[in-house]
């Protein structure tokens, strides 16, 4: 086993120890794993199954059933484009298109350098600012295509969107 894998196992084991190891803890354990790794690595499910009452099939079933769980790695920054009703009416489709073109990826994908993941989401809860894009925990409102692209330009130049 390589050192990094041993370290990852330590992080996984610590989560299981903290949250619990019986079968009823599958969801909270996976939530904590995702917080730690930003997605659910297959290796994590194997490790949990090997050290607890939970089975790989159970964990995989939970991880694929709930949309909150990600099974693939994501970029350092997740660009969420709201496609709720107000934002849809305000031009969310155009924002997604502009960001796809700027980042060279499609909605739901991650850039090859693992910097950005672009995703469409439901209402972000700040409809008065529609259309809205969220980067990390920061919301950008009243956007148009140009302003949306500017968010990325700003991030790339180390500006305030960071
Ligand atoms: S619809 Fe976009 S924030 Fe509510």
Describe this structure in words.
The chain folds into two domains: 63 residues; 80 residues, Glutaredoxin (3-Layer(aba) Sandwich). The chain is 48% helix and 11% strand. It has a four-stranded mixed sheet with strand order 2-1-3-4, with helices on one face. Helix 1 crosses helix 2, helix 1 packs across helix 3 and helix 6 runs parallel beside helix 7. It is α+β, with helices and mostly antiparallel strands and 162 residues long. The radius of gyration is 18 Å and the shape is elongated. FE2/S2 (inorganic) cluster binds next to helix 5.
Layout of strands and helices, then pairs:
Blueprint: H1 3-19, H2 26-37, H3 42-51, H4 56-65, E1 77-82, H5 85-89, H6 92-103, E2 116-121, E3 133-135, E4 138-140, H7 145-156
Parallel strand pairs: 1-2
Antiparallel strand pairs: 1-3, 3-4
Bound molecules: FE2/S2 (inorganic) cluster.
């Amino acid at each position: 086993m390589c050192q990094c894998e041993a370290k990852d196992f330590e992080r996984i084991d610590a989560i299981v120890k903290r949250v619990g190891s019986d079968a009823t803890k599958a969801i909270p354990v996976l939530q904590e794993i995702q917080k730690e790794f930003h997605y659910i690595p297959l290796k994590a499910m194997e490790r949990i199954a090997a050290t607890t009452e939970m089975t790989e099939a159970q964990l995989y079933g939970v991880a694929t059933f709930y949309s909150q769980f990600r099974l693939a790695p994501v970029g350092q920054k997740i660009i969420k484009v709201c496609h709720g009703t107000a934002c849809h009416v305000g031009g969310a489709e155009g924002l997604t298109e502009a960001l796809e073109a700027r980042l060279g990826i499609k909605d739901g994908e991650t850039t090859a350098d693992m910097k950005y993941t672009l995703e469409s989401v439901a209402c972000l809860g700040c409809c008065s600012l529609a259309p809205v894009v969220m980067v990390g925990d920061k919301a950008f409102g009243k956007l148009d295509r140009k302003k949306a692209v500017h968010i990325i330009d700003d991030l790339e130049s180390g500006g305030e969107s960071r």
